[in-house]
Design a protein that fits this description.
alpha/beta; 4-stranded antiparallel beta sheet; globular; 9 helices; single chain
């Protein structure tokens, strides 16, 4: 039985004048999948992600996210996804509890649901005693885990993670990935960009963009086999060397 497709893209394209940032990319992502979206600077992955998040209209092609059309239903897309960037998207001058409550309201949760989710997240993250502490006082790793938990507080169909583990130590990165696995097990689809190729090996499948196109898409073991590589780092370097453009 085929799994539900949470993202579909067919020849999705974005041009800026004569420059083609994203060039007819086609792929699908299944419900609960951890999908790595890789590419060197200038490859087009950020532009592609903006289209999928409903923030930028494509020039041509087709795509749906969580069942909604990227041309006509981008506001509905925004309500049914989560998003986290390397900057974490938290308000530093609000407390931990206030951040959870604020984003719960933004995502349209009821007061009762917000209270329930706030208490649950504080317990899950072992932050019960830190609820009244300002976010800026938290260590970077805790901010990161809090930001991810807030990004999925409304149980979205999919969460977009844009280089979420930048600047943190390897132990904290592994702890963060345990949260990703838990969300995936609950049926939340994970769409993640990363510069860490060891993290690419944690994904169910990986796509690699070069000059606006998807040059490779498969499971990490299959990609390493196809390119006679010992690691995803070797696969990435092999493909990235072909790039003709940069930011």
């Amino acid at each position: 039985m085929d799994k539900e497709k949470v993202i579909t893209a067919n020849e999705l394209t974005k041009r800026f004048g004569d420059f083609t940032a994203v060039d007819k990319i086609s792929f699908e992502v299944e419900k609960g999948e951890i999908f790595g979206f890789l590419g060197a600077n200038g490859a087009g992955k950020t532009t592609a992600m903006r289209m999928l998040c409903g923030l930028s209209l494509p020039t041509s092609g087709e795509a749906t996210v969580a069942g909604f059309d990227v041309y006509k239903q981008n506001e509905l897309i925004k309500k049914n996804i989560g998003y986290m960037s390397q900057k974490f998207s938290l308000y530093e001058d609000l407390t931990v509890r206030e951040n959870i409550q604020f984003y719960g309201g933004i995502y349209g949760l009821s007061d009762e649901k917000i209270k329930e989710k706030t208490d649950l997240l504080l317990k899950q993250l072992q932050l019960e005693n830190e609820g009244k502490k300002l976010v800026k006082a938290l260590p970077l790793g805790w901010k990161q885990k809090l930001a991810f938990s807030i990004a999925i507080v409304h149980d979205p169909a999919i969460v977009f993670l844009d280089e979420p583990t930048g600047g943190v130590d390897p132990i904290t990165r592994r702890e963060f990935w345990s949260l990703i696995y838990q969300a995936s097990a609950r049926g939340i689809t994970i769409f993640v960009t990363t510069h860490y190729m060891d993290e690419a090996e944690y994904c169910n499948r990986v796509s690699i963009m070069v000059d606006g196109r998807i040059d490779a898409l498969d499971t990490p073991p299959n990609l390493m086999k196809d390119y006679s590589a010992k690691s995803m780092d070797e696969v990435f370097l092999h493909l990235a060397r072909k790039a003709q453009r940069s930011e």
